[in-house]
């Protein structure tokens, strides 16, 4: 017994849209959240580690140290080990981990663990 389907252009379009929407929802279900942690190594240096909630690292992701006046004090990117170590600025600052839209974390200096 052979089943024959008459796939009209409208049915093909509907099938393609359903497949595309299904793929989009699957991608959202597998999304991961950005994570960043900063700790003072000593009185002068801070080390930040970035990654994602699925356990993956974030080498090459932008991590900037920004003053409260929005000046970039230390422009940076995470290294191969997903870390960046920098000299503690003399002025008030926050750390911005920016892995793209929806994947941004800000850490204020007050939230950085002391050594």
Describe the structure.
- With 115 residues, the chain is α+β, with helices and mostly antiparallel strands.
- The protein has a domain at 34-111: Immunoglobulin-like.
- The protein is 18% helix and 35% strand.
- The protein has a four-stranded antiparallel beta sheet with strand order 4-3-6-7, with no helix packed on it. Strands 1-2-5 form a three-stranded antiparallel beta sheet, with no helix packed on it.
- A hairpin with a 4-residue loop joins strand 3 and strand 4.
- The longest helix is centred in the N-terminal third of the chain and has 21 residues, at 9-29.
- Residues 1-31 form the signal peptide.
- Keywords: Signal.
Low-confidence stretches are 12-29
Tell me the Rg in angstroms: 22 Å
* Tally of separate helices: 1
**Element order: H for helix, E for strand:** HEEEEEEE
Q: What do the pLDDT scores average to?
A: 84
Percent in strands? 25-35%
CATH class descriptor of the domain at 34-111:
Mainly Beta
Largest sheet: 4 strands, antiparallel
Percentage of residues assigned to helices: 10-25%
Question: What is the quaternary state of this protein?
Answer: single chain
CATH architecture heading of the domain at 34-111: Sandwich
Q: Sum up the overall morphology in one term.
A: globular
Adjacency order of strands in the biggest sheet: 4-3-6-7
What structural category do the secondary elements indicate?
Answer: alpha+beta
Q: Write down how many β-strands occur, each being a DSSP E stretch of 2 or more residues.
A: 7
CATH fold-level label of the domain at 34-111: Immunoglobulin-like
User: Could you give the distance between the termini?
Assistant: 76 Å
């Amino acid at each position: 017994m052979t089943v024959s389907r008459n796939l009209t252009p409208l049915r093909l379009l509907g099938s393609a849209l359903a497949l595309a929407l299904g793929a989009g929802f699957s991608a959202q279900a597998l999304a991961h959240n950005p994570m960043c942690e900063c700790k003072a190594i000593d009185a002068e240096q801070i080390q930040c580690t970035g990654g994602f909630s699925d356990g993956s690292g974030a080498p090459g992701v932008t991590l900037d140290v920004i003053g409260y006046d929005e000046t970039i004090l230390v422009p940076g990117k995470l290294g191969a080990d997903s870390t960046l170590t920098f000299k503690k600025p003399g002025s008030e600052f926050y750390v911005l981990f920016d892995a793209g839209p929806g994947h941004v974390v800000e850490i204020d200096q007050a939230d950085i663990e002391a050594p």
